[in-house]
Write a structure and sequence with these properties.
Elements (H helix, E strand, L loop, with lengths): L1 E7 L5 E6 L2 H10 L5 H4 L5 E8 L2 H12 L3 H8 L3 H8 L5
Helix pairs in contact: 4-5
């Protein structure tokens, strides 16, 4: 099983990643080890959202999608606010 996850950092920013072991990866982020450079200065971090996938490719694809989302759109997903998520997904044409 693979996971895409969102962490809430101490500076109120979100970090999106993927892993095969959520518990271990969260520990690594909070200890500042194994590629946790972005979160190192933003510790402590808290797991606020995760999704599971049967393949690594699906988890990576979802991670890339979520990384492109705004802070507000990530919050809507985390809070399960589907109406806001739909509204924030609409593009305005200029």
């Amino acid at each position: 099983m693979f996971y895409t996850y969102i962490l809430l950092c101490a500076d109120n920013l979100y970090y999106v990643g993927f892993t095969q072991n959520l518990e271990s990866r969260l520990k690594e982020h909070n200890e500042g080890t194994l590629g946790a450079a972005y979160t190192f200065i933003r510790r402590p971090v808290t797991l606020v959202y995760s999704e599971s996938f049967d393949t690594q490719l699906k988890a990576i694809m979802r991670e890339r999608q979520l990384k492109g989302w705004s802070h507000a759109k990530k919050e809507a997903l985390i809070n399960g606010n589907l109406d806001s998520l739909k509204t924030l997904s609409k593009r305005t044409v200029k």
